[in-house]
């Protein structure tokens, strides 16, 4: 276990999340989602399991280490209840609370069929222990931008380690 890292984030999840680039997507899926089949088609190619929590809990954990994309309009999306874009099941309300707390953003609905197609092109799929329906989300990774700083008198620059 690592200090300061949410224990829901397994070593495999941390590896996949850190391997993602700007614009790559991670799917957080409930237990009903065809995660194994779809995960094989993703960039990562293997299903990631977060058995220690439901979808809102896993969304919170991922957002603790993943910057959302600030350059696109909808970096956080939810699987829409069929034909009901404004319906928010309890699981989605809970995940929306986690998203809002972490980023100040809201989820955008994506029709179920489109969600499945998008998931196939994602970087990775994380299946959760969530048994409530509609607990599926897509998060788009952004970049963590640090301000440029001039080199110090010692010659080191931002990001360099000096003993």
Automatic annotation (TrEMBL):
<dbReference type="InterPro" id="IPR050443">
    <property type="entry name" value="RbsD/FucU_mutarotase"/>
</dbReference>
<dbReference type="Pfam" id="PF05025">
    <property type="entry name" value="RbsD_FucU"/>
</dbReference>
<dbReference type="InterPro" id="IPR023750">
    <property type="entry name" value="RbsD-like_sf"/>
</dbReference>
<dbReference type="InterPro" id="IPR007721">
    <property type="entry name" value="RbsD_FucU"/>
</dbReference>
<protein>
    <submittedName>
        <fullName>RbsD/FucU family protein</fullName>
    </submittedName>
</protein>
<keyword id="KW-0413">Isomerase</keyword>
């Amino acid at each position: 276990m690592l200090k300061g890292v949410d224990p829901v984030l397994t070593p495999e999840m941390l590896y996949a999340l850190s391997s993602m680039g700007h614009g790559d997507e991670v799917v957080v899926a409930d237990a009903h989602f065809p995660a194994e089949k779809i995960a094989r088609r993703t960039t990562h190619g293997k299903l990631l399991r977060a058995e220690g929590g439901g979808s809102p809990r896993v969304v919170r954990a991922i957002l603790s280490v993943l910057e959302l994309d600030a350059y696109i309009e909808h970096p956080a999306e939810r699987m829409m209840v069929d034909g009901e874009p404004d319906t928010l099941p309890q699981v989605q309300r809970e995940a929306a609370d986690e998203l809002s707390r972490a980023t100040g953003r809201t989820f955008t609905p994506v029709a179920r069929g489109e969600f499945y197609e998008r998931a196939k092109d994602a970087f990775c799929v994380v299946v959760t222990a969530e048994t409530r329906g509609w607990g599926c989300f897509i998060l788009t990774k952004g970049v963590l931008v640090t301000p440029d700083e001039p080199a110090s008198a010692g010659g080191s620059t931002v990001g360099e380690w000096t003993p």
